[in-house]
Amino acid sequence: MCSIHMKRIYLDYAATTPVDPRVVKTMLPYFSDKFGNTMSLHFLGQEAKEVLEKSREIIAKFIKAEPQEIIFTSSATESNNLVLKGIGFANKAKGNHIIISSIEHPCIMESTKWLETQGFKITRIKIDKYGLVNPDDIKKAIRKDTILVSIIHANNEIGTIEPISEIGKICREKGVYFHTDASQSFGKIPIDVNKLNVDLLTVSSHKIYGPKGAGMLFVRQGTKITPLLHGGGHEFGLRSSTINIPVIVGFAKAIEIAKKEMTLDAKKITRLSNKLIKRILKIIPGSHFNGPLIKRLPNICNFWFEGVEGESIVIQLDLLGIAASTGSACSSVVLEPSHVLLAIGLKPQEAHGSLRLSLGRWTKEKDIDYLLKVLPKIIQRLREISGA
Amino acid sequence: MKQYYSKEVIKRFLHPKNLGKIKNPDGVGDTENLRCGDIMKIYIKIIRKKGKEYIKDARFQTLGCSAAIATSDIICDLVKGKTIEKAKRIGFKDVRDRLQPLPPQKLHCCLLAERGLKQAIADYQRKKHKKCNDK
Q1: What are the strands of the beta sheet with A300-305, ordered from one edge?
Q2: CA-nearest residue of chain B to A337?
Q3: A330 annotated active-site
Q4: Considering CB atoms only, which of A6, A330, A384 is closest to B38?
Q5: What pLDDT does A165 receive?
Q6: Which of A154, A328, A335, A387 has the most other CB atoms within 10 Å of its CB?
């Protein structure tokens, strides 16, 4: 196999995205030229401070929030940790009960597990076979001592879009803080924090063609929350650390681009993913689609194949220059299959044969055609090896 | 392009030498890793030469990751031509040594191969014992 002539097709946009060249260009002056510390009184510091606030305004406007409600962090994981621990510890006087769904991102699952060791009580709401949370289940689970409900906006493995606005309404009526992790949905579908009825919302930069190392947490004014990082009092006292200006500038630029191109991107991606799903289910016997066909993010397509193991599909694709992902236990360090696929009712051996293909801004029709050409042969070959 | 696995794993994964069933095998090992869900079948054929039992052929069928497929193929190679007694002493480390560097979380695939082989041998010896008793 000659690597020089090998294709490179990226179908793992849900894992991370390449940084848009327009974003890179915007970031460059902020490394060695406009390198100031936002806390400094001199012109370099003030220049940095100005661009930080401009970036804050861009993102605030995009989600219909106020600039002072935007807290920059280093990642979605950090934002989610800040929500769970920050709301948890700040509201202990009211109670110690937190509600999440059973298909949250690992950073929510693991943070809540840790909170349990600190005396917090966690309810994990079951979802249906499409990954949907029933708002009534949330209503029933809310207790007197419930301080926070956190439900993912769109799932990172199967793309299910949750009824956030409805759940938010319930939480508001009950007087409980409501957070949504919008890492996958942000920049792909419109987000308005008021229409969604959320008090807190997590966003990541590297999922929307921005740089890694930048995240954001929307915190509605008046929300009682305590910081994880104490220090110089940056980000309204909620997140001390010298501000990482280059990545925040890049994040803001990525949002500006998304604002203009989101609709067009979504249209193209929907067409390509519809073709992908339709063709795979048709040409590969024993193939199944995971998750909902409606109420989903158009860019995430998750399948499982009978008689094969997902890691070996991913490695075969990798050898042909296609980057994809699986929820199989074999791809994880802890040897557990994806908790999301199990939660939607897949048996472990079904989750074992899963493959996630996620599309993005630069996915081309010919990439999909190439995948459709090689995947049936890969599945067939692996079935020969398994004897299935 | 940089790869997750060593060249040997990839070679074995793409072009296993010992893939498939053996017709009328003398022993079959059918083992599953209950945690990750990989299923491995090892088939062996035995011949007797000068009063000793040798593994004449060994083949496999595996539903599993690239590493599990590679370890299945390697263990078949390692036992072919060996006496039963020698084959019994082949362990997961012998398999691992042929596939280095192997990601640490894939060590259990070597264990699975060892178990598959041991089960196949035990299956053969059980059947042989039964035959003797039947006579």
Answers
A1: A287-290, A300-305, A354-358
A2: B36
A3: yes
A4: A330
A5: 98
A6: A328
Stretch 94-133 of chain B: residues touching chain A, C-beta under 8 Å: 105, 108
Distance of alpha carbon B15 from the chain centroid:
16
Distance from CA of B8 to the nearest CA of A (A): 14
Per-residue confidence (pLDDT) for residue B2, from 0 to 100:
86
Q: How far is A317 from chain B (nearest CA, A)?
A: 12
Residue A162's SS3 state is: coil
What is the pLDDT, as a whole number, of residue A2? 43
Query: Does the beta-carbon distance from B63 to A388 stay under 8 Å?
Result: yes
pLDDT tens track for B32-68: 988 888 999 999 999 999 999 999 999 999 999 999 9
DSSP, res A19 = P
C-beta neighbour count of A347 within 10 angstroms: 12
Cβ proximity of A320 and A7 under 8 Å:
yes
- Give the pLDDT confidence of B100-114 residue by residue, as tens digits: 999 999 999 999 999
Are the beta carbons of B66 and A311 separated by less than 8 Å? yes
Task: Give pLDDT < 70 ranges for chain A.
Answer: 1-5
What are the distances in angstroms from CA B132 to CA A176, A388, B56, B124?
74, 34, 21, 12
**Residue recorded with tokens 């280093």:** A74
In chain A, which residue's Cα lies nearest the Cα of B7?
Answer: A319
C-alpha distances in Å from residue B23, one per residue of A155, B43, B121: 47, 9, 16
Provide the ipTM.
0.94
Chain A, chain B: beta-carbon pairs less than 8 Å apart: 75
Considering CB atoms only, which of A308, A319, A329 is closest to B35?
A329
A106-117 and A76-90 helices cross at what angle (nearest 10)?
A: 30
Side-chain half-sphere of B41: how many Cα atoms within 13 Å? 14
Q: What is the pLDDT of residue A5?
A: 58
Instruction: For tokens 């491995």, name the residue.
Output: B40
| Residue B45: per-residue pLDDT | 98
Rounded distance between C-alpha atoms, residue A250 and residue A235, angstroms? 18
Are A352 and B19 an interchain contact pair (Cβ–Cβ within 8 Å)? no
pLDDT digits (tens, 9 = 90+) for A68-109: 999 999 999 999 999 999 999 999 999 999 999 999 999 999
Q: How many CA atoms lie within 13 A of B14 on its CB side?
A: 14
Dihedral, CA of residue A185, residue A189, residue A190 and residue A192, to nearest 10: -30
